[in-house]
Specification:
Layout lengths: L1 E6 L11 E5 L18 E9 L7 H11 L3 H6 L4 E2 L10 E3 L6
Parallel strand pairs: 1-3
Antiparallel strand pairs: 2-3, 4-5
């Protein structure tokens, strides 16, 4: 499962419980028995919009969301690693877990 975080938009809320199956595309990790049309393994993409002001550090925003929200989704997502894919200048940076926090 991959989680995608987006800045919250007041006029167009992000679709609640958005989950899109995606073809990982590399058969090195096997194929999806339930999706014969996929080349590789099925990966579920889930999206969440989180409060963020323009110019804020995206890593800090994600960390704050995972640390402070009492909702179920952030608690479950906090059990996984978060690696930044965009913006390009942050590509590969680890946003979660925070080193030193168990």
């Amino acid at each position: 499962m991959f989680g995608l975080f987006f800045r919250e938009h007041t006029k167009r809320p992000f679709p609640y419980r958005r989950n899109v199956p995606y073809d990982f595309g590399h058969p090195k990790f096997g194929i999806s028995p339930d999706r014969q049309d996929f080349v590789g393994r099925r990966v579920d993409l889930i999206g969440r919009s989180i409060p963020c002001e323009k110019g804020q550090d995206p890593i800090k925003v994600i960390q704050n969301y995972l640390l402070s929200s009492s909702n179920k989704s952030p608690r479950l997502l906090a059990k996984k690693a978060v690696i930044i894919l965009e913006p390009e200048e942050l590509l590969g940076k680890v946003a979660w877990p925070i080193l030193g926090i168990a």
